[in-house]
Amino acid sequence: MTATAELAIRVRRAAFNRALAEADLSAIGPILAPNAVLVTGTDSAVISGRKAQLLAWKREFSAPSRTIYARAPDSVLVSPAEPIAFEQGDWSGVPATGGGVEASGRYTAKWREIGAVWVIEAELYLTLA
Question: Could you give phi then psi for residue 37, rounded to 5 degrees?
Answer without folding.
Answer: -125, 135
